[in-house]
Structure formats: structure tokens, C-alpha cells
Specification:
By secondary structure, the protein is an alpha/beta fold. The protein contains 23 helices and 24 strands. The strands form five sheets. It has a ten-stranded mixed sheet with strand order 10-9-8-11-12-13-18-23-22-24, with helices on both faces. A seven-stranded mixed sheet has the order 3-4-2-1-5-6-7, covered by helices on one side. A hairpin with a 5-residue loop joins strand 22 and strand 23. Helix 5 runs antiparallel to helix 6. The longest helix is centred in the first third of the chain and has 29 residues.
Amino acid sequence: MLYLFDKFKDITGLGRLSRRLKAWVVGQPRSTRRWIVMSVDLLGLLFVMVSLIYMRIFAAPGFQAPTIRTILLLVALPFLSVGSFRLLGLYRLVTRHVGNKGLLRIAYSLLAAIMLWSFVIFLLDWRGSLSILPRTVIIAYFFLGWAMIFSIRDLVRWWLRDRPIIEIERMEEDKKNVLIYGAGEAGLMLLKTLNQSGYYNVLGFFDDDKSLWSMKMGGFKVHRFDQFDKLIKEDGVCEVFITIPSLSRLQKRKIIKKLEPYPVNVSILPELADIATGRIQISDLRNVEINDLMGRDPVQPIQELMQRNISGKSVMITGAGGSIGSEIVHQVFALNPARIVLLELSEYALYQVEKDLDKKIEVLCKFQSKFPKGTFVPAIVGVLGSVGDEDLVRNLIISHKIETIYHAAAFKHIPLLETNISAALKNNTLATAKLARVAQECSVERMVLISSDKAVRPANVKGASNRLQEIVLQGMAQEPNSKTVFTVVRFGNVLDSSGSVVPRFREQIEEGGPVTITHPEIIRYFMSITEAAELVIQAGALAKSGELYVLDMGQPVKIDDLARQMIRLSGKEVADDDNPNGDIELKYIGLRSGDKMYEELLITGNLVGTKHPFILLLNEAPTLSPEDSLIMLKQFDMAVVNDDIGKIQALLVQYVEGYSSYSEINTPSGKMIEAKEGEVVALSSFKLH
């Protein structure tokens, strides 16, 4: 029969018209297709209603012409029915595959429309307008309307039976086959949201809880992980959502590691504390970041240390728009300061951090009654300028009565500073010395310098300038009449900071590669920005004056492994000798001028444990006396003013232990040791494997 009908279409030309119409419908946006289906449903239900009215009223003997109100009331029911379909989600289902769920939804949508229609008529006492209408019409409308809506979808399925696969997939609203990892409450909430969105086809759950295996949650089976490979190959799973917000970072890493070999995109729900509404939305999901794999479980900060130099005080952050500086700004804002002065050389960076604070202030003002008693909105002062401008800094400290300074302003891109040596020394070392001197003259209570592991036996100008910063502050701390507490906090790379390899790798992956690595064996220490900022604030609070603190950075990371993980987490494969058909190639470009294979955190001295397990005190003697420090600064100042690169290099070799220009220093590295408060750990115990 279908064969004869198809032949008839070809002979009459209807087949060509039908194909064009199908191509037009399939090519329309999703919203347009939805309106087309709604219009067809409305016409079908109107046809059912008119047919019933004709059969039960117009064909009956003694016909009484209906009033305008009666006709409007009857015609309103199909419109109300289509509205009910939309509200109850019928149009979010794939039109061609209604299934049992769709049949039930059609039935209770029609029933809801009829009940609402009847209730309105009864409420407005319009029953007289329908006195000529037998009740069987409404009953028949329910059953015939249900059959009509189902038939429309069956007809669509038949009509589209010969469309190409790619167009059928578009008709099915480009749904992605997905799995949910975690069959708990959060997983069920996400399942409901995914079903309502119409963009995802959930195939089931995975969970590590053996008691849930083979059970059904929300109508979907909970699978064991060893079935994952089969589902990916047979059902084309392209995305996995991890919905266990209570996971520790170690547990999260284990799950992500299991998923890493598979060609799927992995998204994850935020921490439990971030889900405050009790309702999960798709926008709550985020892509798995390298932070999830490399960061350790955070240690709860010691609140007394966090608040000691901030709460109720006037605080200045230099380099406030940078990666570390902006995070310190947000941490300080949450600790109830009286005033925050943001000193930043970059106009755009200052604009961004002020904009972020404006949002926080808006929330704080709106919901201030819900915050703890004594919480107030700090004054925010954004200042565009350089740390090396002594007059500006002095004016800021005096006029705003600055009590605490966090000094995060520094140039840090190694290759740039290798070719701009004078600028590096002027901004990093000499400007820091000017800031410290003004802070000392104005009796600022505390100044905390953020240093780098590159200051240890540096192979580049950036690291050498950091080491000189440390020497300068240690020298000033020895001055007998100084009322300012100077301290230095030294740590390694920060994940996702502007100077980190992570943003560069991410950009290269988005561009399709290659991902460039200096050397296959190069390693670095990494820490999350949030953890680094918290530890800097706490270390600064521990200081008495002149101390240098080292942060426990955990295990060092091989940059080659980091790049491969980032590629796999993006749903792509590494192209190498083992997999020549992969998506993204790794390219080794060789060490740049100033690069080191390994970073260190110590030069000499012993590590002493403190109140915080990740903050260690470096017990070393100051390198220079205050007098020698002043002599050194004058020498560098003169060389920088004259842009005498040879003199600067000679001074760096003279004053910075281990520095040698254009050197490559390969020092083994290992795990940071643990030290309890007051426990001294000799450098010889700092085993490097």
C-alpha cells in the first residue's frame, strides 16, 4: 500500500513537494518547529470539537442554534488544551517518538484542560450557555482528542521515515546522549532538569555504591563502572555529569582519572556550599578543570590568623588587578576590613577588580541583615598608579591611614624580563624598596611581600629581582627603630594565573594545537589561587619581623603530564607516536632563556613548623646588613637609570647567590616535608628524590 502511494506521489509531483516541505521543516529553528507542531495540534483539536458539535447538536432533531458565547466557550477548550500541553512539557518530548510517557502526558494534559475549562464555566455561572450541549461531547472530546494528538505524531514519524540520519537527529532536537555519575539526590535533581531542557538524552546512572547497582532511580538504571565502555561504544555517550558535590578532592580525582581515557566531555557540579537554592540547573555544571586533578583537599584556614591584620583595618593591596592580587582583594573583602585601597598599574585590571567588588557590595547592601552582626561595607578606593611612585604611595598611606600592605605588584613573564632587564629591576626590586621605605616612615603596622620559588638560585632576571626584594625587606627589618613588621612569603606557581602555563595550554587546545612544551622532563610546583591567597594572609599574620615563610606546595607536577591531562579533559586525544590520528599534537620547543628544569624553595637554612601545617618558617640569617642593603640599592638604581645591562648583570651575580645569566640549573625535586609547630627540620632532611 505504501509502495503504491509513493508511486502516486512521484507521478503527480506530490513527492517532490513533500520532500521540499520536509527539508524546510527540518531546517527550521527548534522554536519554529515547536510552533508548527502546536498549530497542527490546535487545528486537529478544533476539528475534533467541530465534528462532535455537528454530530451531537446540528444533526439532532429540533436543533437549536448555539449562541455566540456557547461557540466561543467550546472553541476555547482546544486552545486551553494546547496551552496545557505546553505547560506540562509535551512539546519538550521528541515529536516522532512519543512512547508511553508521551501518551500519559497527552491524557493528563487533556484532562487538566477539561477540568480547568469546566471549573471556569461553573465559577462564572455560564452553565446556561451550554445547556444544549450533551455531557458526552466533553467525554468524547477527551478520547478523540487523545487519539488525534497521538495520530499526528504517528503521522510525523511516517512522513519523516525517509529523511537522512543527520536530519532525523536535528528533528530530535540535537539531543546528546549523556550519563550521570552519582545516583544521589543531586543526580536526581539534575535528571529532572535535563529532561525538562529537551537537549539531553539521559541513558542512566553510574555510582560506586554497590547497593545501588541494577536499581532504578528516576526510571533509569544504575550501572557499574565496568559497563561504561560498552555504553560509550553502543549508545554513543558524549558527555558525563559528575553529581556528587560532597566529594573530597582526592575522591574527585579518582573518578576523573577513571573517565580520562574515554572520549567524553566531563562536567561537574560545584561544591555543596555553592548549591544554596536546593535546585540544580544546567548552568550550575562546569567543565572539569585542572584544579580538580592537581589541587589537594583544602585545610580549613585559621580564622584568627585570617582576621588579625584585616578586620576593622585599612588595607592596601598592590598589584590588585593581578591573579594573586585580585584573589587577596576578595579574601580581604570577606574579612570585614574598614577600607581597601587597590593600587594597580593596569587600567583594565583595576576596572575589572572594582567591577567584581561592586557586585559584592550590592549583595552585601541588599542582604546585610542576613550577615553576622558587625558586618559592614568596606570603603573601596581604586588607584591607578605605580608602586614606585613614592609621593603617590605616601599620600595613600597617610590619607587612608593604611595599617596593612599586601605587596603583589610585580612583572613576572620570564622571557619578557630577560630582554627588559632594567624594567624588571626598576619595577620589581627598586619599586619594592621605595614602597617598604615609605611604609616604614609612615609606621605602617605590617607589609607582606609575595615572593616566588624562582628567587632560589635563579636562572633568570625575574627570579633574581624576587631574591633582591627578599634581601631588601630582610635588611629593613633589622633596623632598630623600625615599627613596621616586614615579612616575605615564598611559593611556586599558581594554577590559572596570568603567568601560568595553564591559560596558554587552554588557548592552544581551543585553537586545535599544537600544545608547546619547553622540555618533556620539566617540572613545577603548583597551588590553587584561593589556597595561595589564604596562606599568604595567614603567614603574614604569624610574622614578628624579617621572617621568610615557605608554603608547602605538595607534589611537583610534570608539565608534560599536565598538558596531556588538559587535552584529554577537553574531550580530545593526544596525537603522538602511539596515536598518530589523535586530535592535538605536543610540540617540544626547548628551554627558553632563563628557564630552569626544576624549581626549588630553599637556598640555605632550616624549616620550622608553624601553627599551620602548610606554612613553614625558613630559619636563615639575613644576607645583608641595613647599611649594605642601602649601598646595593644605590648601585642598582644608578645602573638602571643608565640602562647599563652589563653593570646590572654584574651586580646580580655579586648579590644574588646562585645567579648566573643564561644558565640552566637542573636540580632534583621532591615532596615538601611536613613540620609540626616549633619542630626544626634540617635542610639535609629535605630529601629530594
